[in-house]
Design brief:
The complex is a heterodimer. By secondary structure, chain A is mainly α. Chain A has 13 helices and 4 strands. Chain A has a 4-stranded mixed β-sheet with strand order 1-2-4-3. Chain B has 8 helices and 3 strands. The longest helix of chain B has 33 residues, at 137-169. The chains are: A mainly alpha, B mainly alpha. At the A-B interface, helix 4 and helix 5 of A face helix 2, helix 3 and helix 4 of B. The structure holds zinc ion.
């Protein structure tokens, strides 16, 4: 046990103050602070049949998810105890051996959670949400593991090298380095994706340009991702940093199930993510979470000689998994705030709460999403506000802007 | 079980050791044929970091081999520093290839140090090379590259068969291991010849002969 020196305390206190200041700066949104969401009659808005069907669909996935988490943690507990033995299988140096142990840890977790991934796919296929074949999905999942192997190897290369050079204080530069890696990955992400096409429908492109101008976003191309051969679910996302920024729509949004005005709300929502810098803010939040995470990691692995030793890696994997699970509710709060802000800005830009409500109703139908999931699911899985809350925000927006009756709903295309 | 192990050790004794017919680039084999299934199942993915590392390294190899070529053309010899740099690259690639094709058991390192992997490549120190041979190296290596592509295909077949076999039995069939080692040796000798590590032409024989006395235990 080393004695606590004044400069240790000074470093920790100043880090803490800087952390709180940074979190404060990142947390601000344009959603009015006094905005009160009205109560929504869920069955009235979404229809009792759909709500019941979505609840039944999601219930299975909740149980499946919980079992997969238990299997993952149990696997990592066993691996933390026994995984060290696999170091025998390495002819590499300490860092290379650490990388091997990290990758093998992910591999055993992949194996033990594979049945749950297959079960989720079976359930999606049963509900007509997925057309992916089992072999195709498992093989694709296995290949995707190669990317995770590379990511964990780079992370361990950085952390173990710093720990070997700097000793127990590696966690400060280590968290900064992990943040820098996250910046690189997020920047490169749009360039690494395949199957993204420029928008071919002139109307969507025009609406996008108009909404981008309205939000003061320039130089962010719109791309369409072809997913309709594997899923019927609809989605969109904003990604990239600086010159790599993109807004991507799944082609399932443009297959006629959503009205033009509803698609406009999606475009405005994704543009709002770019206008409000949600991607760089998310990276900032990652770095903020990484800092205490790295500190905990350095403390937990001391019994195995610290992160400089490959023997610490299996224990570190368990620690990271537990930290991730513990941080999930907080990370979801951050994510929900950003999503609510994007919804609000989309309403401000389109000024069309009726289309927003139509969009959220249709999303519940096409994704079988429970509009009002149980509290624990919101806490652990709720990256977005619930669909009921999103409808409530559309109504609150209408109320906020003079309480006028929202414009009429567009007839849905057949 | 014991009898099987005896048979295996007899088989090992037959091929473990140094194989290279006196070629400056020779391959060393160990006798361990066990291959733990977990590492077999994920083997193609476990080398992803090595492949990225080798790709980055290759960016430096190109100017290094040009420099070696110019110096060898003038002085008839590749400088020791450049030779060591290029040899480490070829050896790392050989270690990774041996692991990927299940010719070697453990996970390889990244720096290509001699003696760091049980399936090793011994590379003789730089020797005098005829200037004409250096000048025409690019043209001279073409026939060897043709044979090398056949050996690459062979290594792929060996790798796939060995992967299936080892996934079931947890062992590498000795015959496949020897065939894979012969392919790796030819590949290493061809690359070594192209990168000016030696002036000796690759030895196309697929046979691993009786080990030479300098075999490591
Ligand atoms: Zn969003």
């Amino acid at each position: 046990m080393t004695a606590v020196r004044p400069w240790h305390v000074a470093v920790l206190v100043s880090s803490g103050v800087a952390w709180i200041a940074a979190a404060w700066a990142l947390a601000g949104t344009v959603v009015p602070d006094d905005l009160a969401l009205p109560a929504v009659d869920v069955e009235g808005v979404f229809g009792a049949a759909l709500v019941e069907r979505a609840e039944r669909y999601e219930r299975f996935l909740y149980v499946n998810w919980a079992l997969a988490q238990i299997a993952m943690l149990a696997t990592l507990v066993v691996y933390a105890r026994r995984g060290v033995r696999l170091a025998r299988e390495s002819a590499a140096g300490p860092v290379g051996t650490g990388m091997l142990l990290g990758m093998l840890g992910l591999a055993v977790v992949w194996l033990t959670t594979l049945p749950f991934s297959v079960a989720a796919l079976w359930w999606d296929r049963r509900h007509g949400l997925s057309q992916a074949g089992y072999l195709h999905a498992v093989l694709g999942d296995w290949l995707a593991l190669g990317g995770m192997f590379l990511a964990i190897s780079i992370a361990l290369l950085v952390v173990m090298t710093l720990a070997r050079r700097l000793g127990p204080w590696w966690w400060i530069p280590g968290a900064l380095a992990l943040g820098a890696i996250a910046v690189g990955l997020v920047f490169a992400d749009p360039y690494l994706r395949t199957g993204l096409e420029p928008a071919r429908e002139g109307r969507v492109e025009q609406a996008y340009e108009r909404l981008a101008r309205a939000q003061g976003v320039a130089g962010v191309p719109l791309r369409i991702e072809k997913v309709s051969d594997v899923t019927t679910e609809a989605n969109a996302y904003a990604s990239g940093l600086g010159p790599s920024r993109r807004v991507v729509l799944w082609d399932t949004l443009l297959d006629g199930r959503f009205t033009e005005r509803e698609v406009d709300v999606v475009l405005a929502h994704e543009l709002a993510h770019q206008a409000r810098d949600h991607v760089p803010k998310a990276v900032g939040w990652f770095a903020l979470f990484a800092l205490p995470g790295a500190l905990v990691l350095s403390l937990v692995t001391r019994s195995r000689g610290g992160m400089a030793q490959p023997a610490a890696v299996p224990l570190a994997l368990l620690a990271v998994a537990v930290l991730q699970l513990v941080a999930t509710p907080a990370a979801n709060v951050v994510s929900r705030r950003m999503e609510a802000e994007a919804d609000w800005k989309a309403l401000e830009t389109t000024r069309d709460p009726a289309a927003a409500r139509g969009l959220f109703r249709e999303l519940a139908a096409t994704s079988l999403a429970d509009p009002s999931p149980p509290a624990w699911a919101r806490l652990l899985l709720g990256t977005h506000p619930t669909l009921a809350d999103r409808v409530a925000m559309a109504e609150a927006w209408a109320e906020h802007h003079g309480g006028s009756e929202p414009s009429t709903t567009e007839p849905r295309p057949q | 079980m014991e009898r099987l192990d005896d048979e295996l050790s007899a088989r090992r004794a037959a091929t473990a050791g140094r194989h290279g017919s006196g070629h400056p680039l020779a391959i060393l084999l160990d006798g361990d044929l066990r291959r733990p299934r977990l590492l077999v199942a994920f083997r193609p993915l476990l080398v992803v970091p090595h492949l990225c590392w080798l790709a980055l390294w290759a960016l430096l190899v190109t100017p290094a081999v040009v420099a070696a070529w110019v110096v060898a053309l003038v002085s008839g010899r590749v400088p020791t520093g450049l030779h060591r740099f290029l040899a480490a690259f070829v050896r790392t690639a050989a270690h990774v290839s041996a692991f990927l094709h299940l010719v070697g058991r453990p996970y390889p390192g990244f720096l290509g140090r001699e003696g760091s992997y049980p399936v090793d490549l011994t590379i003789a120190p730089p020797a005098r090379q005829r200037r004409l041979g250096v000048l025409a190296r690019l043209a001279l290596v073409l026939p060897a590259l043709l044979i090398e592509s056949a050996y690459t295909l062979l290594a792929l077949v060996v790798g796939v068969l060995a992967w299936c076999a080892a996934l079931v039995t947890g062992r590498m069939p000795a015959g496949l291991r020897d065939l894979g080692a012969a392919a790796l040796r030819y590949q290493a000798q061809t690359v070594g010849y192209a990168l000016l590590l030696t002036s000796r032409y690759p030895d196309a024989s697929p046979r691993l002969e009786t080990p030479l006395p300098e075999a490591r235990p």
